[in-house]
């Protein structure tokens, strides 16, 4: 043995024991599913299989608006291998009014087609190619009608739906209508149609049950709502339909298109066999909801010092063919139309209308994102008129805790808007690019771009954004969770879907923190569990996380009470730290593992935030539970000859309440900011005459890693919201809302052009006469 080996083997020189892996709230606990996703073993819906499987295909309308004269399924039914063909005639029920986003849309179009891609029929066959060919063999005779594609014309057009074309109108009146400022600026703005473009395939599996019901295996983000809608359409009771949530490959909106969920279940019930459907990318674009295209008209009044006196606005949301979540999106748009600024007088009119365009619905930051782009453009105009620095103008008007929103609701949560803006304003600017061939990749357009360094102008712009958390206007927010501990291993049962927001990791951290247990598992989600609601607006961090915390605390009490009774003290005098139970006086010291050995403890709890109220006829009311804010400074380089834009850097400051998982929080903010880059510069789903053009990822340009700018998280304000569990705030939506406005502001600064449309088209950034 060599001397080196002998030394290494000496007990005295043995390597120290590894440090325990940190856990609990406030640490960067790795995601539980990270390894499975990395190794390719994560159970996505597209990977599911069942014995005797059939394959489904959906026939969709090639027209935006048409009357259906006849549907002939004879040829499709006679094709070898075809097991079933279903149309509207085979749907035993219908959506229940007011229940879920599909409440006003049919499973299949019957008399009239209202949008391009609307389902007409569905086929089940023994091979996917057979199913697709059979769907194409269904003969539909259409009487093509002129589509209503301009939302401004929807008011006077013939009704496109039995419920009419107007989905909702909100008039918001706050303050003195006669108020006026010395300085007035006006603008008109348009926000394009953006798609959530989920990376993973939208897929599902339906399995019939012996009791005449059906089980649907889906990447659903709101399984109980999907179950209730499906049961109503299938003519079944909710307990006859079960939704099992498969692995969700990320979601920034409603993950699944009910235009194939519901036909899938019908085919399984009709054939008595498992049926699977995997949507193509084109079908995904045709089927699921998009961000609302929006037309906005603004007039800002300010005094000579730049302080806002009055804001007037008109907001028109294009809901597409069906209502979906447009009423909620309009409420957010109208309520936040003035932004995170103090506005003593506000008069806003908002409408959401039906058209024959593709359906719009829940996409991260809906409503708030569109108005943020408009009111920040107005602030830039106002600063230019006054000759004031744009950041300084924003600081003079910044909202703070205790101020009143235009809805009349007092801001009671932390609102460090000025602090956030000052943080990004003071952060050092990035260095200018070198004017040399080695650095030509820094030019807008990339290394193969045609631009010249002399045509590049740098601009710096700002954006301030706000969003609401949880539901609004009286939504009954509630979630239920169960925590079980057996032989030192904890299990969490909660129907909160992990869609990439990190809930399963958070649930593990909560239980670790509360009980001192290292090994925590989160059970798969299905509708046999009590409902937890949809996975949007930071709900699961607040409501479902709160339910897990309460259940864990109840188990903690069950664990500590016998010990406390034995030593004649209150269990509140005992604490759990690093897996050890100790008393305040040091008399008691034991481990959690010892006390849990051989025991099974469990508890179920609910979390329900304080109630809100609907906006009244003047747009007034305490409609929101909590608010989150963000400030972003954008630095861009613009080739003023070609109109190409490169986002150099985005500096972000955000109020987060409390950091629960640093790495996870940073990832959510960076992802939201990057999504905003796409909204600002590239993502535009074009629909001439209501028809989707290029419904694929070549025609719809998502930002890639090469498009992602340097993202600097310069400040995270941890001022806890006392009404929220853990004091934390939603983190994902507000950077999506804010970054497009900041980028547009920077392009305005670089070019002097108004930039009144998103995404920014090259011609909007071209400067002539240079």
UniProtKB/TrEMBL annotation:
Q: Where is this region: Disordered?
A: 1-26
Q: Which SMART domains match?
A: Ald_Xan_dh_C
- Looking at the record, the residues that make up the Aldehyde oxidase/xanthine dehydrogenase a/b hammerhead domain are 39-146
Name its species: Streptomyces galilaeus
What name does UniProt use for this protein?
Xanthine dehydrogenase family protein molybdopterin-binding subunit
Instruction: Specify residue ranges for compositional bias: Low complexity.
Output: 1-16
